[in-house]
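Run log, item B.
One chain of 417 residues. Sequence copied directly from the ordering sheet:
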Amino acid sequence: MKKRIIRTLSVVLCIAILVCSMSMGVSAADIDKNDYTFVFVHGLCGWGSDDGANKYFSYWGMMTGNLFTELERKGYNCVAAGVGTVSSAWDRACELYAQLAGGTVDYGAAHSAEHNHARYGRTYNQPIITQWDSEHKINLVGHSFGGVTVRLLVQLLAEGSEEERAVTPENELSSLFKGGQTDKVYSVTTLAAPHNGTSFFEATGGFSNALVKIFCSLAALSGSTQLNKLFDPMLDQFGLSYLPGSSSGVNYDISKLSAFINSKDNAFYDLTIDGAAEINKTIRTQPGVYYYSYAGTKTSKSRWTGNYVPNFGINALMFPYAYAIGKYTGVTAGGRVIDEKWLENDGLVNTISARAPFDEPSRVYYSGEKVQPGIWYIMPTQNMDHLEFSGGMLNISWSKVRNFYLQHLEIVTTAGM
């Protein structure tokens, strides 16, 4: 009788432990997926969920349809921020912060004076997420230049800006520049990000210079007309955009446009290898944040020339750029060497540059390993061109895009477990 009672109690105890462990596992997964919003940040010339273009063509999903529909169906909360299309990483980070926290964009007294533009931008009365604090962290996902943007945002959240604190009275200082907010971020994921710049500009020479002027001119033209309702470049600080709700436009001022193009406060300078190196001096990984980086390649080494040539299936528009980057070696204006390690690329960004920032701690990720915060995990290089990471242009399948994101989001939400 006594033995039977002991066996019965043992069975009951085992069942209780099993039920509790299962409940705890489900609860942790639910917390990760539902409480930590994924904030997606677009790259050069991209757009967010609230931009007019998104009604017709989603940046996140592109030709495969809206990516968020599937991610949200699987239980992930996702939002897409919209920041300056050709603005610098600094300006974009300030805009992203205002969208997340609510309030008016503050580019900083020191920064705006240095680059001769307005200190304040547009106001966001309603943040793009309902709660953002240490109990409601965010997972930042940046494609291309969006990857640089989110890295800089985390740096400012962590340590603020000494330059801005030095010239700004305490009662006027943006909370972004005060620092001490790292606990609001759970993870950072970058996709085909030019962490260390791209040799695109050196490889394409005069063509890239002309392309920069064309992109900036089109952005300014869009911003200064009603076209900004469809595609908003967000160049308010330079006087090259409508402000939301404004009934009158701004003049297409060639002198303002020229000043913007020739400044170092734009995306095209930050995308250069020299510009990226300057940014990287100011950024370091934060000990409480998980970091993941994906690089792409759509080129292969030629057995005859040793150069990297475009693979079948690359976006046709990127074919000449992939070829030019794949054969270029030389030295940047700042004296940085571009050698054979820079030849492999995704059509716009060198694979080596997208793997991880050169001077930050990193290691190759192995499937199933328990990741640690404060270190870049270099994820498996993807057989994707630059645009395929966000959905591509008829050269990637719906299932490949969804599976890629679902697999990674699962890695993020189970980190540290």
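Observations after the first pass:
- The chain is about 35% helix and 10% strand.
- The two ends are 43 Å apart (CA to CA).
Flagged for discussion on Thursday.
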